[in-house]
Structures are given as structure tokens and as C-alpha cells.
Specification:
mainly beta, six-stranded antiparallel beta sheet, 13 strands, about 45% strand
Length: about 190
């Protein structure tokens, strides 16, 4: 069936070996209020606040994006943006650690002309309840194929969320960060 085909194509994408992209200014354009590169909880990481780090010289259309994030309970909206095909137009998935365990503990939503209309993209089609661990790294894997995306949290074998992307599929930039509260990111790969 069509659903099995989609799952098989996502699985084949997810099993491809990936290389961790170094977190440094040679690979990332960092636009933030503040950031620091440091070893944190055993990982080479970036601590970034109030901004985004955009991967240089790379365009992304379909594939798998993975990273680790060390969450705090502070209100924030850290996450990933992908397929940024023009300024302010991209797809995104972000975490809401201050809402841990609640049905809207995270959000998949497009960014359209610089605005994220999260109020229009709500409910079980765009978010899921999740209990975040504030004592260890949280692993996030986003698999993108055509007009669909899936997210897998903490090495889950089944997706925590599958959703329809809003923008027509076209390659674009990839960035991480966001939110008010600073967070540590590590082990970024595509």
C-alpha cells in the first residue's frame, strides 16, 4: 500500500550513514544574540541564544537531519528549520521544553514570509505529547521526503509525528536555534 511505500522510503533514508558536521564558524553562519563553542556534558557543542546557526554552502531537499539538544525547563522554542528557499520561507520543527508532557510539547509548522502561523497548525497533526529529559541530551531526527516529514525522538524506531509540509518541495538552507532561552546543540548531521 501507499503507506508502506512511504515508510519503506523513510526507512531507507534513515539507514544511510551520516557524518557529524563540526560546530564552528567555518561550517555555520551564526546570527544570534550570543553563542559559545564548548564541551558540554561530554559533547562538542554550541550554546546559542536568541538566533540561528545556518549551515554554509549546503542545500537540502530530501533526507535525514539529526542533532542532539540539551534542554532546560526554561520557556524556549529551540529546533530546526529546513528547506529555507527564500528569506523567511521554510519548514520547521521546534520543541517547547516548558510544556514537557503536554500535547503541545513541540510543533511542526511552516514559516511563511517570516511568520510562523503555529495557531493554524495545531493539534495531533502537528504536535505530540513528550516527556523531555532535562538531565541528558535529547536526540532529534527529522526525515524529509517530498511533501512529508517525520520526527523521531530519542532513537525511537517509529515516528513520533508524521506531517504534511506546507511549502512545495524545493531545496533550501538548514538552520537550528531559535527561542528565548539558550540551549546546547551537538552532533548535527545531514
Amino acid at each position: 500500500s501507499f503507506g508502506v511505500l512511504i515508510l519503506l522510503s523513510f526507512f531507507s533514508l534513515a539507514t544511510t550513514a551520516q557524518t557529524v558536521i563540526p560546530l564552528d564558524t567555518a561550517h555555520w553562519d551564526i546570527q544570534s544574540r550570543s553563542h559559545i563553542f564548548e564541551n558540554y556534558k561530554g559533547e562538542s557543542s554550541i550554546y546559542i541564544q536568541g538566533g540561528m546557526a545556518t549551515l554554509k554552502d549546503t542545500k537540502f531537499l530530501n533526507g535525514t537531519i539529526e542533532f542532539d539538544i540539551f534542554l532546560t525547563e526554561r520557556q524556549g522554542f529551540p529546533g530546526i528549520r529546513f528547506r529555507a528557499f527564500s528569506p523567511g520561507n521554510t519548514e520547521s520543527f521546534f520543541l517547547r521544553p516548558h510544556l514537557s508532557g503536554k500535547p503541545d510539547a513541540n510543533q511542526a509548522a511552516p514559516v511563511i514570509n517570516g511568520l510562523t502561523p503555529w495557531q493554524l497548525y495545531f493539534g495531533p497533526s502537528y504536535s505530540f505529547a513528550y516527556d523531555y529529559d532535562f538531565e541528558d541530551w535529547t536526540h532529534v531526527k527529522v526525515v524529509v521526503n517530498g511533501s512529508k516529514a517525520q520526527v523521531f525522538m530519542d532513537y525511537s524506531e517509529t515516528p513520533n509525528l508524521s506531517w504534511n509540509l506546507v511549502h512545495a518541495p524545493q531545496e533550501g538552507e538548514v538552520a537550528f536555534g531559535g527561542g528565548y532561552a539558550a540551549m546546547h546543540y551537538a552532533n548535527f548531521s545531514i
